[in-house]
Amino acid sequence: MSNEELADSAPRRGSAGPSSRTLAAPHASKVDPSVPAWWAQLQGEFGAMLRTPLRTERGRFEPDPDACSPALRAALERSTALAGGSEPGVVERLEVYQSQYWMRLFNTMQTAFRRLTHVLGPWRFNHLAQIHLSERPPAHHDLDQCANGFHGRIGRALQGMAAGRTSSRGAYEVDQTRLCDLPLDERARTDPCCQQLARSPAPLTLVRQALSMDEAQRRAMLAGSFVRWEQPIVDPDRLAPCRLRFSASFSLVREDWELAALGYRKPATTRAVEVSQHPHPHYWVFHRGPRAVGSVRVHPIFARLLARAAKETVGEALEAVRAACKPDQRSQLEQELGRWLRLGAESGWWVGVT
Amino acid sequence: MGGRHRASEAAFGADAVGVGLRPEHYAEVVEHGAQVDFFEIISENYIGVAELPRRHLRMIRERYPVVAHGVSLNLLGADPLDRGYLRRVKQLIEEFEIPYASDHLCWTASERVHHHDLLPCPYDPALIDYAVERAARVQDLLGVPFGIENLSSYVTWARDSMPEYEFYRQVVERSGCYYMLDINNIYVSAHNHGFDPHAYLESIDWSRVLQVHLAGHSMLDNGLAHDTHDREVSDEVWELYRRAWQAGGPFPTLLEWDHQIPPIATMVGQLERAREVRA
Asked: By C-alpha distance, which of B214, B217, B226 is closest to B253?
């Protein structure tokens, strides 16, 4: 099972972003009928200046001195007045706003996608964030929502880069190929996100898993209140004909590298970090607990059961997992099943059955 | 709606001192408390779908009064006021018995894009009616005294035809709202635009000051003062605060610190300095 499949088993928040690769046009919207027209127009000019992507030619993110339109420059001409002996002009003054706009959003995106920031490094990550935010400018007073749609956008870019590499058997395969070594097809070559990702030496699966784990944690953070199934059914026989109703905050993710802990480290300041690979995959559940967002490492057999239970009844899922188990695994499944079902119900991973 | 004393007296004294509550403080405040008279919260942090911030706030509200400060109202924006946003702020006010709320004399969004910054407007008489009507509507919808905060800014507009403080005064008085007076912002803007900060203070009707803000700023290489909220209050701002207190005290005083946030003891130390300055 892939992380994308696992992530698909839980409801998504937000909608897909626009597909344009260029700076998105602002939404056509109604204005307050009493606003002076000249003021609405100036806000449009100022907003366009803010949203102009930062330049990176000199190896750092810098305001674009060409972001200021002639109309905006004319509207701000008084800004050349001296202050305290210094003489910053209109463009220098506007650069404060343009930098603030982007740095605030970069920080928010890095906090939301810490693992991805760590594995790609902040320089590459900020390029991706800038592309995402140019295509989909923040549209909500909640700053954290600027990261909505980023998981899908980068996920599609990675999928495009890996086109043709998916196993025909459908089994999950760890792809160690470095992103910079992937041959890009025509479509990927013209996608700005693919162009950025293709400069990273990180392995394809590592990047996918970092992205999935960050999104799982974000989904749990953004989920509403913790809900517990008050009188849960934990008897496997009674649950057999039922489908579990998973919480909106629940996600199951696979981890082949030491990624989980990276989500709790402050965003990297300079370079990508080296991440160790596990001898065997780990599986994590992310969910909203009663006091905080939780992440719990689960047994691989339980993980298999959870993944199947997202798509079929508990009985069908159990049957399939049992069939794939070796004898010693089967006895472990029977021994632990009751405890696992109780853990899931009491932790609010599922909130009922259908 | 009454003046500043009536707005806050039920919750804390007119000379109260407080700090901006940030998530970094939750554990420390809940476990050890803090030597403050009240906390100010960023409204937007508690009106989202996530329940957890409100859970923390409930624990803190049991021990301290709380006031609400917003950053997304978009008072001077061209977009219509967001009634859904205001409804959630009102629910917050009611749930936590918040005595007054505030936001900024600025715009933050246009064409439904939220820029998450406090952006300047021209100080043009043609905008006063617009700001007055919207501010009055906000105060009416929220049902508590609404304070309007002056901005720190880096540009001025060709259309400016009156001092900032005169524009500010007219909006506050004509709307029936109140001042949320930021002393650091006066200093930063005065430095960046070359006006006299003392003239600014002289223009204030102190009977309409709900609260005063203090914060730290930095200096950019190009000479601009930058409102960073990442350090202690500068000596120049303390001096302005002293003058403000002489002219219009007592008023509740609130320290904002939003980046490189220190232990709360450091912030409390700044509040002690505020008490010394005004003694």
From this structure: B214
Residue B2 predicted with pLDDT over 80: no
Judge contact between B106 and B118, C-beta under 8 A: yes
The DSSP 8-state label assigned to residue B2 in this structure reads -
Q: For residue B268, list its beta bridge partners.
A: none
What tokens appear for A318 in the block? 């159990």
Measured distance CA(B207)–CA(A242) in Å, rounded? 66
Beta-carbon separation of A84 and B223 below 8 A: yes
Q: What are the helix (H) ranges across chain B?
A: 4-8, 26-32, 52-61, 83-95, 128-142, 164-175, 183-193, 197-202, 235-248, 264-278
Please count the residue pairs, one from chain A and one from chain B, whose beta carbons lie less than 8 angstroms apart: 159
CA-based nearest residue in chain B for residue A45: B110
Predicted confidence (pLDDT) per residue in A40-70, tens digit: 999 999 999 999 999 999 999 999 999 999 9
Q: How close A96 gets to chain B, by Cα (Å)?
A: 7
Q: What is the mean pLDDT of residues B130-156?
A: 97
Looking up tokens 């693919």, which residue turns up? Answer: A194
- For residue B158 the two structure tokens come to 């060709």
Q: What is the rounded distance in angstroms from the CA atom of residue B66 to the CA atom of residue B55?
A: 14
Whole-angstrom CA distances from A322 to A241, A243, A316, A328, A337 are: 16, 18, 10, 11, 11
Q: Which residues of chain B make contact with A222, given a CB cutoff of 8 A?
A: 48-50
Binary contact (A78, B160; C-beta < 8 A): yes
Q: Which of A76-90, B8-22, B247-261 has the lowest mean pLDDT?
A: A76-90
Return d(Cα A208, Cα A214) in angstroms, integer: 10
Contact B114 A78 (CB under 8 A): no
What values do phi and psi take at A251, rounded to 5?
Answer: -145, 145
**Which residues have a Cβ under 8 Å from the Cβ of B191 and sit 6 or more positions away?**
A83, A84, B224, B225
Of A35, A86, A104, the CB nearest to B78: A35
Which residue would you say has higher pLDDT here, A309 or A4?
A: A309
| Conformation bin of residue B136: beta by default, left when phi > 0, alpha when psi is -120 to 50 | alpha
Using only the alpha carbons of chain A, give its radius of gyration: 24
Min mean pLDDT across B46-60, B89-103, B142-156 is at B46-60
Nearest CB partner across the interface for B48, out of A50, A82, A142? A142
Question: Can you give the pLDDT at residue A261?
Answer: 94
Q: How confident is the model at residue A2 (pLDDT cuts 50, 70, 90)?
A: very low
Q: A79 by DSSP, 3-state: which?
A: helix
Residue in A271, A3, A293, A227 with CA at minimum distance from that of residue A117: A271
Contacts of B103 in chain A (CB under 8 A): none
**pLDDT, mean of residues B229-246:** 97
CB neighbours (10 Å) of residue B131?
A: 24
